[in-house]
Structure formats: C-alpha cells, structure tokens
Prior knowledge:
The chain has helices at residues 8-18, 38-45, 60-74, 90-95, 116-123, 158-181; strands spanning 2-3, 30-32, 50-52, 79-81, 100-104, 127-134, 144-151, 185-188, 191-194. With 199 residues, it is of the alpha/beta class. The chain folds into two domains: 1-96, Formyl transferase, N-terminal domain (Rossmann fold, 3-Layer(aba) Sandwich), CATH 3.40.50.170; 103-199, Formyl transferase, N-terminal domain (Rossmann fold, 3-Layer(aba) Sandwich). The strands form three sheets. A four-stranded mixed β-sheet has the order 4-5-6-7. A three-stranded parallel β-sheet has the order 1-2-3, with helices on one face. Strands 8-9 form a two-stranded antiparallel ribbon.
Amino acid sequence: MLLSGRGSNFVALAESVAAGRIPNAEIVLVVSNRENAPGLERARERGIAARVIPSKGLEREAYDRMVVAALEEVKPELVCLAGYMRLLSPYFVEQFRGKILNIHPSLLPAFPGLEAQRQALEHGVKFSGCTVHFVDETLDAGAIVMQAVVPVRDADTPESLAERILDEEHRIYSEAARIVLEGRYRIEGRRVILTSGKA
C-alpha cells in the first residue's frame, strides 16, 4: 500500500480486510514518501508495518527503485495506491504490471490528474464519481475495474463533492481489490470483464 497523506482509502481497505470483506488478504506493508503522512500512524495503530522512504530531491526512477526494493522484501500480490501523490515510473510499473490498483475521484477518462472535483464543477457535469483502475505508464489511463457515479448538486463546492465521492471510493476500492485478488476478471483490450471465477 502506497500513500502520501491521511490514508482514508487505506483505512477503508484495512477495515474491509479485518472484517473479512476481502477474504484471505493481509496488508503486509504501507510505504509513504512523506514522513508526516497521517496514514503511517494509522497503519502502525493496526499493527501493520509502515515505512517512510523520503522522495525529496530524488529522480522518479531512482526513488521508485527504492520503493520496489522495499516491496520485493514482502512480495505483495497487489499494490494499492491510496492517495499516493507521485507518478510511477515505467520501471515501477514493469515490476508489478497488472498488479497495481489506483482509485481516482472522477469517472475516468474524464478529469484525470489533480483537482478532479474542481475540473468536474468547472465543466458543469451533472454526474461525477470515482474509478478504480489498473496503473500503467500513462496518468490515470489504465484499464478500469470499477466505477461509482455521484450526482453533482448545484450548490456543490470541490470540497462537498469530494466528500460524497470519498464515501463511494471507500466502498468500491474494497470491492475492486477483492475481484482482482480472487482473479474474477479478464482483460480484453482496454476492457476489464468481470467473471464468476478465476480467469
């Protein structure tokens, strides 16, 4: 699990694991590029190994090689990004291809990158939401596993919209992680097709 901030999606995943909603799963390591990330303390409170690998001043691939080395020590089946505010290098993606999930607060491919809620409001969309997708070398462009729709209200601010989207993020990230870990999908081109059993 990689995070840079408060780690609310990490907490949602951890609670789903603890409650058995993602059966036979364990979060083996939380890594942050920021020493003061609240998500690190949340991990430690749950008895989960948490590690800081500072990124300041390092080139992207040089930093990613350090993170990959830490992950390879625990051999994760899945790497989940939970508010991780760094772009992954092609090197990182190649080491875990098809095993990296991210959640983004828009209905991709609309509004990739930062401030997705502000982008949605500025474009006047009537619906926004969130997307769980596989990570590839392109920003917020990997194959989509799951999405949830959130209506946009006339009085919404970026903050109020973000809050409602976050509730859906917490719900679908756990569902998507379970589907991927159980192998209940196949990829055809860019489409993720959900299946009843292992692909």
